[in-house]
Design goal:
single chain; 0% strand; mainly alpha; de novo design (two linked rop proteins); 4 helices
């Protein structure tokens, strides 16, 4: 599975997980933010695939990595605020958290390799 497919699958899982969160005022804000950042990872990787230059590619992957970091924050907040209940929801939160860490590592690796090949160390 390539990074785009993996990010898409993560986005799908994030959307489904968000449906399990409470529909309170705070929950609604977190749901919106989680879905926005969690699905943006894959959207930005799709943008990177159609980049107009190597520099543009690197910038899009960096944005994707930033979105992954934001998603990690929202997942950690959900955990710390104890917004989910039930073993299956808690297990899914753990899996999503593990996956977002993996995506961050992969995206960092892509950025580093692209920078090495292109000579863009300041991007």
């Amino acid at each position: 599975m390539d990074i785009q497919d993996r990010a898409l699958e993560f986005g799908v899982r994030t959307v489904k997980f968000a449906d399990k969160l409470p529909k309170s005022q705070a929950g609604s804000v977190i749901i919106k933010q989680l879905i926005r950042s969690g699905t943006s990872i894959g959207a930005n990787m799709e943008e990177a695939d159609g980049a107009s230059s190597k520099k543009d590619f690197i910038n899009k992957v960096i944005i994707s990595r930033k979105e992954a970091r934001e998603t990690r924050y929202w997942l950690r907040l959900i955990d710390k605020a104890e917004l989910i209940h039930g073993e299956s929801s808690k297990l899914e939160l753990e899996k999503l958290t593990k996956e977002v860490y993996e995506l961050m590592k992969i995206l960092s690796s892509i950025v580093n390799k692209a920078r090495e090949k292109s000579g863009y160390s300041d991007v």
